[in-house]
Amino acid sequence: MEIEVLKNKKVSELREIAKTFQLEGFDKMKKAELIEALTRSGPTVPQGEMLSENKTGTEYKEAVPAEKATKERESRPEKTKKFEKEKKEATDIKETREVREAETVKKEVKEAETVKKEVKEAETVKEEAAEKESPSAQEKKIQGPREDRPEVEGILEIAEGGFGFLRFHNFLTSDKDIYVSPSQIRRFNLKTGDKIKGITRRPNEGEKFGALLYVNTVNGDEPGVAIRRPDFDDLTPIFPNQRISLESGATELSMRLIDIVAPIGKGQRGLIVAPPKAGKTVLLKKVANSIEKIYPEIEMIVLLVDERPEEVTDMQRSIGGEVIYSTFDELPQNHVKVAEMVLARAQRLVEHGKDVVILLDSITRLARAYNLVIPPTGRTLSGGLDPGALHKPKKFFGAARKMEEGGSITILATALVETGSRMDDVIFEEFKGTGNMELHLDRKLSEKRIFPAINLNKSGTRREDLLMSQDELEAIWTMRRAMANIGTQEVTENIIDQLAHTKNNADFIQIIKKTKLES
Fold it and tell me: 140: annotated binding-site residue?
């Protein structure tokens, strides 16, 4: 190609010519480089034909024969062809790899979604099977108690957080307590005071308490009964109309006299008013033994608050029922806690339709304990008693009632009088009108060793006509009319003598009807 002709061309025209010859990198070359590259490419125009100086690159391209262009392309260096081939192969490989990777990712996502769907379906089937599974099948899974999963029975106490613990000794906190989860409490409608029997596990590393795994019984019934039971506050209280007869033998004069003078019914709220050394503890012990002997189906709880330790031991050895105690050397908080746990326990039993008898010694000491633990209200009654301290003891005593739907709580509580403390007298006066049965013990009779030292004039039961037959009522009215004109000591001695000479109360009633007591 003529160098002079090329020199007369513009850079743009030279690049058009270079493009026609398919020179590599022509778009980055300068004019001199373009001329040199075109010169090296050899003649591209047939002989006899000269390019005019005004001919453009496009015109030149049109002038080039097709076969000449093909020849020029074939004459390119082998290195350029090889590079283009490798570049094309690399592009194809890259595209193929990207397609494969996209297909792999798509496949993995699809498989993950399938697995997730299968797991969700399996969990749904498992939950439905667990809901439909019978208690017997669940129990079979537990396989009963084992060495590492012992069976225990304790009283539930629910904390503020919704969880609970099974208490064992005296309803108080100990290291042997068992943790109960909130889910179990909600599932079985458990409450404070429930007696739970179930399978437990040992505490794991870092845990202080064992945990409840499976509930076998609640208050001796199936767990399903606890779910459907009514609430204690929703039950209807009525007057006691089922009598609890304490007469267990001819020699038990105390029990026979109580049956005549102040009969006790299921749901009775009785107050035993006693000065010191009048024999109230012995009387409570005899009442407990009589009820235990005649009515084994009645749940009996003896609650000793602020009592002497030796009295506790004597009571535990004398009766077979449950004895819950808090001795006078313990903190007032313990007195309060055992009383509240006993009340909750009794309420849970009544919700199951059972009859409960609580023998409390004494309600005076319980009120004293509450007087020490409650926040001060700013007012004080005579004797240093805070009015707010009487609320919880009244709630305890007021829980005694006969339920129309079934079940009852009978409470016989002792109240101390003539102790020389003004506070004790105030407590007695506050509780005086709350009970529906009162039994007064007389210190003068006890000093003269006349037992039982019962003041017959002051003792009695409200609505005794619901508990006694017509013959018994007439005999009692005859006795009381005669006692109005005779001193307490003489009347008591006369009645005790008559009881000692009869085998049972029925014979005594017949004697009273035939012969009136002389004034």
Answer: no
Identity of residue 472: E
224 labelled as ligand-binding?
Answer: no
* Contacts of 474 by beta carbon, 8 Å cutoff, 6+ apart: 513
Q: Is position 267 annotated in a ligand binding site? A: yes
269 is in an annotated binding site: yes
396 CB contacts (<8 Å, ≥6 apart)? 339, 340, 343, 360, 363, 366, 411
Write the CB contacts of 466 (distance below 8 Å, at least 6 apart in sequence).
239, 240, 241, 265
Distance of CA 193 to the CA centre of its chain: 12
Token duo for residue 489: 């000591």
Question: What is the value of pTM for the model shown?
Answer: 0.71
Residues in the chain: 519
pLDDT at 142: 52
Query: For helices 505-514 and 253-261, what crossing angle results, to 10°?
Result: 60
Q: Is 435 annotated as a binding residue?
A: no
As a whole number of angstroms, the distance between CA 287 and CA 255 comes to 7
pLDDT tens for 377-418 read 888 888 899 999 999 999 999 999 999 999 999 999 999 999
Q: Would the annotation count 280 as a binding residue?
A: yes
Segment 151-169, tens digit of pLDDT: 999 999 999 889 999 999 8
149: left (phi over 0), alpha (psi -120 to 50) or beta: beta
Residue 266 assigned as binding residue? yes
Query: Half-sphere exposure (CA, 13 Å, Cβ side) for 325?
Result: 17
Residue 407 counted as an annotated binding residue: no
SS3 label, residue 299 = strand
What the block records as the tokens of 127 is 């939950």
The answer to the question of whether 308 is labelled as a binding residue is yes
> Is 279 assigned to a binding site?
yes
Torsion sign over Cα 315, 316, 319, 322: positive
Task: Give the burial string for 61-99 (b: 16+ CB within 10 Å, else e).
Answer: eeebeeeeeeebeeeeeeeeeeeeeeeeeeeeeeeeeee
Pairing, β 299-307 against β 322-327: parallel
